[in-house]
């Protein structure tokens, strides 16, 4: 008895030239080799390791089959199998995904690029060959700073890997955050209508942390005697 054999992710969306690794869970243990195949080799290709690459627009199905040797007959038999859907698309638009649009000074949050639908994630286009490049900017750098995800390690990635960034709230104010996504080879038809770039912009508001102006106190607690009063004034 073994848990159900499942291929992951359950649904795959890629642009032309992008790749993703299909993995598995469950099935007989220790697991034998998985034989991968795809319903339409014109749409996408799949390697023996489960690496799928988008080739042309359309839909297909990747099948993974687990085989084992029958102890009585010595023949290979199918023990379990599973299927996942594959869709190869063109990007018609991009959008910036940010968990919040209001943040405190001195804090940071991750932002990343998505396609127009929730299934068009960075996994859909981040590994494309020829690749895409991602160019970020803010309208007020004194309000919001933007850095690569590996900047703290003093490691700068090329623009084609910057589909995710970190933004830092510096000073109180409102600013625009913009990303421009460009194709390295328009002939690859990775964008709709042979477009060479797509862009999106959102507004982010940075506000000051709440703190006491009067009385000036660094402590998180104020001790008071019974029947006493104190007037508190904050920065808001």
Automatic annotation (TrEMBL):
The protein's name: PO210 protein
Database matches in Pfam families: Big_2, Ig_NUP210_13th
Limits of the BIG2 domain: 1-76
Classification via InterPro entries: Big_2, Ig_NUP210_13th, Invasin/intimin_cell_adhesion, NUP210-like
Gene Ontology cellular component terms for the protein in this record: nuclear pore
SUPFAM superfamilies: Invasin/intimin cell-adhesion fragments
């Amino acid at each position: 008895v073994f848990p159900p054999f499942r291929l992951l992710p359950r649904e795959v969306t890629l642009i032309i030239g992008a790749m993703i690794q299909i993995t598995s869970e469950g099935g007989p243990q220790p697991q034998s080799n998985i034989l991968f195949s795809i319903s339409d080799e014109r749409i996408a290709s799949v390697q023996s390791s489960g690496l799928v690459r988008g080739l042309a627009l359309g839909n297909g199905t990747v099948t993974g089959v687990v085989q084992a040797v029958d102890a009585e007959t010595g023949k290979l038999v199918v023990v379990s199998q599973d299927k996942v859907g594959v869709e190869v698309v063109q990007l018609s638009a991009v959008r910036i995904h940010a968990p919040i649009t209001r943040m405190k000074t001195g804090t940071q949050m991750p932002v990343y690029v998505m396609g127009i639908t929730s299934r068009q994630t960075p996994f859909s286009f981040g590994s494309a060959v020829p690749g895409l490049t991602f160019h970020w900017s803010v309208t007020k750098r004194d309000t919001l700073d933007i850095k690569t995800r590996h900047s703290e390690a003093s490691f700068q990635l090329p623009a084609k890997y910057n589909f995710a960034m970190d933004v830092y709230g510096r000073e109180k104010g409102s600013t625009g955050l913009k990303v421009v996504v460009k194709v390295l080879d328009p002939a690859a038809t990775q964008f709709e209508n042979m477009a060479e770039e797509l862009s999106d912009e959102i507004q982010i508001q940075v506000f000051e942390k709440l703190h006491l102006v009067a009385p000036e106190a660094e402590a998180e607690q104020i001790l008071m005697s019974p029947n006493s009063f104190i007037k508190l004034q904050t920065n808001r």
